[in-house]
Amino acid sequence: MRVGVLMFAVLSSALLAACGPSGGGNPQLLATTTILADMAKQVAGDRMTVGSIVPAGAHVEEYEPRPDDARRMSEAKLVIANGQGLDKWVEPLLRNAKPGTPVVVMADGLPDIDGNPHMWFDPALARGYVVKIRDALIALDPAGKDFYTVSALKYSGELLTLETELKAKVATIPPDRRKLVTSHDAFPYFAKAFGFEIVGFAEPEPGKPPSAGELAKLVEEVRSAHVPAIFSEAGGSPQLAETVAKETGAKVVTDLPTDSLLDRPADSYIGLMRVVVDKIVAALT
Amino acid sequence: MHAPARVSSPGVTEPAVIELHGVRAGYDGRTVIDNVDLTVRRGEFVALVGANGAGKSTLLKVIVGLLRPYEGSVSVLGAAPGTSARRLAYLPQAETVHWDYPLRVEDVVLMGRVAHAAPGRGPSSADREAARTALGRVQADDLIRRPIQALSGGQRQRILLARTLASDPELLLLDEPATGVDPATEEQLMSLLGDLASHGRTVLVSTHDLASVMAHFPRVLAMNGGIVADGDASILRDDAILRRTYGGHRPGGPQHIADEHHA
After folding, report:
1. What DSSP state is assigned to residue A209?
2. Beta strand extents in chain A (DSSP E only)
3. CB B204 within 8 A of CB B64
4. Residue % of chain A over a pLDDT of 90
5. How far apart are CA A20 and CA A44, in angstroms?
6. What DSSP character marks residue B45?
7. What's the mean pLDDT in B107-112?
8. SS3 for B254?
9. How far A75 CA sits from the closest chain B CA (Å)?
């Protein structure tokens, strides 16, 4: 992602002087997604205000920036993007940022799977996100180094515990039922981390319905792999999943969170991961 | 299921830290442990032994709250399992945690140390010293600056163990902590865990190393689909108990080698 190079932008002394404990108004840390904003909040605590461009519950990959986003961008002290094409719409928005505003791109330098951006679904890579956020915050606000270091350690420890908890839950699914069919290609890192096979997804391209041929191919794959359930993502229509389910006898599970936080209990990254695993475990056991 | 053979009783003056009554648990409807009644008191140092698939990990997961039993009641530190997470530390089997992002060893250990720190504090020099001490206890102090991703499986397990030690919990639940650890380090580790128990920490350890159990543990739970014997280490010299535990195969035989990773 092109914005990655801006990560190394040199801060002016004036900008550094402007960065301190949180104030009201526009967020000092502007993340592209609610998941990244939550992670930033866990590390920044009360020292910085944090906001997200894409609101909770909204689709990230199809997001179209609004004029208000440009205004918020102009006030941001640090921009946190995911990269790998997930939030590529942020690149034109960055023109509204103050010169020298650092942009930290989470996916840069992390081991990717075919360029897929959904790395947060692997808790190990999520811990990598936390390290990048910590380092960016320390560069922005060196006086808070101890604060950010400890909060990042605490949060990373929680993510380690989360990984253990989720893997114990997944272990209750019979191995031959650990198969996923989802709305779009959002789960390769999840599958790798938790030992699932990705059988297919309803939308080869996010937001675009499949062709008749693609749908028929998916139905055949679901049948031959004996996939127990089709997962329809939150905010999307379950119609495609229902069509495949009707043809194959699989059950439909709706409202699987993916790119955006939702209402409680999926209103934090940790909560979202628990909801995802709980829904999958409930459907496949 | 036979009633467990109880050879000796722990002291009853200390409060119960773990209480299980009539517990049946397993995975996808399959029962792995059944009829489990267990009381562990503060300061006890308890070994769980048995073949792979005997239910050692399952029992630990039930106590931690990672696995809800099909039947029975569980109380941990006076509350429902999973609700006292800050007071206990659980070390899963090696390679449960993945390290696709290379965190530094010191940071992983500090995670345990600062887990309950007040916001904005540290990591102080005392925290870093505690992390170094914990790494020293598992013979890994020379790894402190390394990225954990670059270490072997056994080394990573030692780092996670150091993190557990650094968190100084009331209750330690360790699932095969000596996997990938050389015998000398294992010996020191078990001595250390026994020392923690003698200072009021409660420690449960699953292990395959019966010699180590004989040398260090005052209480042993022999498992095979439940608890088949519960007593001091002398139960491991009882052929009848060993047969019920290992199904006729001595530890190290084919059944011991068979891999049922999550049971």
Report:
1. P
2. 29-31, 50-52, 78-81, 103-105, 179-182, 197-201, 229-233, 251-256
3. no
4. 79
5. 11
6. E
7. 92
8. helix
9. 26
- Is residue B141 packed enough to be buried (19+ CB in 10 Å), middle (13-18) or exposed (0-12)? middle
Rounded CA separation B243/B236 (Å)? 10
pLDDT over 50 (residue B1)? no
H-run or E-run covering A244: helix A239-248
A127/B contact by beta carbon, under 8 A: yes
CA quadruple B227, B229, B233, B238: dihedral sign: negative
| Residues of B (193-222) whose Cβ lies below 8 Å from A | none
Nearest to B111 among A110, A124, A157 (CB): A157
A112: its two tokens: 């990717």
From residue A56, give the alpha-carbon distance in Å to each of A203, B50, B93. Answer: 22, 49, 36
Whether B61 and chain A come into contact, CB under 8 Å, resolves to yes
What single string gives the DSSP state of each residue in B106-131?
HHHHHHHHTTTPPTT----HHHHHHH
Whether residue B111 and residue A160 make contact (CB cut-off 8 A), yes or no, is: yes
The predicted pLDDT at position A25 comes to: 61
Sign of CA dihedral B174, B176, B182, B188: positive
With a cut of 70, say whether residue B256 has pLDDT above it. Answer: no
Q: State which residue of chain A sits closest to B26, comparing Cα positions.
A: A172
Whether B92 sits inside 8 A of A167 (CB atoms) is: yes
Whether B34 and B24 have beta carbons less than 8 Å apart is answered as yes
Place of tokens 């550094």: A16
Q: What is the pLDDT of residues A116-173, one digit of tens each?
A: 999 999 999 999 999 999 999 999 999 999 999 999 999 999 999 899 999 989 988 9
A175 touches chain B (CB under 8 A): no
- What gap in Å lies between CA A268 and CA A226, rounded to an integer? 33
| pLDDT greater at residue A64 or residue B115 | A64
Contacts with B119 from chain A: Cβ below 8 Å: 45-46, 147, 150-151
Instruction: State the best of B96, B100, B128 to mutate against chain A, taking most chain A CBs within 10 Å.
Output: B100
Instruction: Classify the complex by whether its ipTM is higher than 0.85, answering yes or no.
Output: no
User: Which H/E stretch holds residue B72?
Assistant: strand B71-76
Q: Who among B97, B98, B119 is closest to A151 (CB)?
A: B119
Answer yes or no: do B101 and A127 touch at CB < 8 A. Answer: yes
- Inform me whether the pLDDT recorded for B258 exceeds 50: no
Question: Angle, to 10 degrees, between the axis of helix B153-166 and the axis of helix B105-113?
Answer: 30
- Chain A contact for B170 (CB, 8 A cutoff): no
- Secondary structure letter of residue A185 according to DSSP: S
Chain A contact present for B123, CB below 8 A: yes
What is the mean predicted confidence (pLDDT) over A59-86? 95
Residue A14: per-residue pLDDT: 32
A167 vs B27, B96, B121: nearest CB: B96
Q: What tens digit of pLDDT does each residue of B166-209 get? A: 988 999 999 999 887 788 888 888 998 999 999 999 999 999 99
Q: What is the pTM of this model?
A: 0.85
**CA distances in angstroms from A126 to A137, A207, B99, listed in the order given:** 17, 25, 11
